[in-house]
């Protein structure tokens, strides 16, 4: 291995360590969810709040593409928007998430309104959209690399939900099954792009910081959820409360 290849491998290893140490699969909320320890209202709170992140992803990607001058990069990136928004030919991730909302007893229209989203969730997700819209392209792409670590948590979630919750079926949790196929394609492109473009130590530091920021965004959402609905149960004004937004 030559010096350049060794440096590239070391940088990739650095990025992967960020996920090993900081990805939100380590958060105690996920341990509860995947083991069947959440009540149905705690699952509903998660569905309400996670929807806000899901529905902002294509907006984030559209903001990113509006700044990209390279047609090849735009072509590679635009499938991410269709993965979430869908197309005339196929259903997207947002629609699949609303099926999950309906399965846990929520009114999909209420969830889609984002009225019950926790303030901290809204702040964290909006900060991520602004980050991708405003920061240099290298940092914007690097922030997407949390998808490197997503297949493991999706597999754990599929198994845990099917084992422990009556609402879980192959149809109602189809969002996660589709991400097992969609995410690897996206992340392989993004990882290669970052490795190709982060060639100086300063570039690599910036990319690593961007990925760390994104793990913080994901972690902050779960901290808010845990504080409001699990321990000590301090639901802020305006956020979803048990009994609200249920399917008619």
Automatic annotation (TrEMBL):
The keyword Oxidoreductase applies. Pathway: Cofactor biosynthesis; pyrroloquinoline quinone biosynthesis. Keywords: Oxidoreductase, PQQ biosynthesis. InterPro entries: Haem_Oase-like_multi-hlx, PqqC, PqqC-like, Thiaminase-2/PQQC. Its EC number is 1.3.3.11. It comes from the Bacteria. Residues 13-223 form the Thiaminase-2/PQQC domain. It is an enzyme of class 1 (oxidoreductase). It holds the Pfam family TENA_THI-4. One of its GO terms (molecular function) is pyrroloquinoline-quinone synthase activity. It catalyses: 6-(2-amino-2-carboxyethyl)-7,8-dioxo-1,2,3,4,7,8-hexahydroquinoline-2,4-dicarboxylate + 3 O2 = pyrroloquinoline quinone + 2 H2O2 + 2 H2O + H(+). GO terms for biological process: pyrroloquinoline quinone biosynthetic process. Ring cyclization and eight-electron oxidation of 3a-(2-amino-2-carboxyethyl)-4,5-dioxo-4,5,6,7,8,9-hexahydroquinoline-7,9-dicarboxylic-acid to PQQ. Belongs to the PqqC family. This is Pyrroloquinoline-quinone synthase.
